[in-house]
Design the sequence.
């Protein structure tokens, strides 16, 4: 993992990429349904605004974040709906402005946390750089839903390395989300970035291996494409089964995407 400020720089650039997707949309486009069932473009941006609001609060005022988190419901879906309700009914221009405010405040707060400290979070405390990578995961996934809705082809850079490293770090989340036992094996990941650089994680002699391009790997772990539509391959029984359940976020897996949905 690079230094915190490098991660924040990458996170900021990803936020600007999503901003460019939505900044010129009209009201009808904000209301378009996205591939996430029941969610419009406005829902996608509202979720990002709510997520970055929480991240900014966690970094700037851990006590206030703890008080907020203590009031959350055991019902994950209810928490999501409550968070969305604070933003999703705003007019598009207001929602866009509030998303920018929450995003920029979170970036500033995370950058101010000493790199060797941790930030409280919903599951367990995280180093600020790791929470920033989680933010990149959110931007990638929701940004992809928006791009798919608008028919926009996205361009990616080796900033994806941060998201890939985060997904490797959280490789067990798919099992946890489904209350499945996590296999007691180590995976080898060999992921190729947009520049052609190969990013390697895990023991070189591991039986279970996952390889492929970084864009496809990130689409896999954010569940924005079905694995059968991606150039991500697995060797070994556990890695092969992992492709079906891979996710880089906690909470319910959701329906994911159907094979051939974006042909």
Sequence:
């Amino acid at each position: 993992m690079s230094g915190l400020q490098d991660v924040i720089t990458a996170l900021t650039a990803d936020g600007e990429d999503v901003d460019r997707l939505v900044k010129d949309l009209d009201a009808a486009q904000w209301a378009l349904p996205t591939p996430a069932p029941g969610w419009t473009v406005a829902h996608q941006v509202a979720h990002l605004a709510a997520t970055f609001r929480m991240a900014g609060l966690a970094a700037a005022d851990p006590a206030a974040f703890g008080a907020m988190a203590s009031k959350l419901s055991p019902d994950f879906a209810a928490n999501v709906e409550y968070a969305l309700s604070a933003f999703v009914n705003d007019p598009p221009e207001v929602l866009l402005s509030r998303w920018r405010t929450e995003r920029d405040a979170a970036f500033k707060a995370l950058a101010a946390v000493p790199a060797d400290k941790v930030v409280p979070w919903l599951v367990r405390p995280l180093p600020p750089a790791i929470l920033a990578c989680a933010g990149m995961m959110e931007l990638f996934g929701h940004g992809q839903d928006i791009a798919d809705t608008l028919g926009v082809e996205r361009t990616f850079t080796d900033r994806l390395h941060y998201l890939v490293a985060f997904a490797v770090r959280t490789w067990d989340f798919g099992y946890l989300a489904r209350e499945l036992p996590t296999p007691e094996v180590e995976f080898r990941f060999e992921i190729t970035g947009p520049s052609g650089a190969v990013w390697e994680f895990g023991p070189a002699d591991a039986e279970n291996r996952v390889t492929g391009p970084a864009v496809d790997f990130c689409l896999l772990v954010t569940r924005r494409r079905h694995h059968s539509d991606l150039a991500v391959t697995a060797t070994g029984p556990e890695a092969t089964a992992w492709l079906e359940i891979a996710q880089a976020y906690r909470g319910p897996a959701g329906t994911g995407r159907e094979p051939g949905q974006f042909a």
Remarks:
- The beta strands are 187-192, 198-201, 208-213, 233-235.
- The longest strand covers residues 187-192.
- The mean pLDDT is 95.
- The radius of gyration is 18 Å.
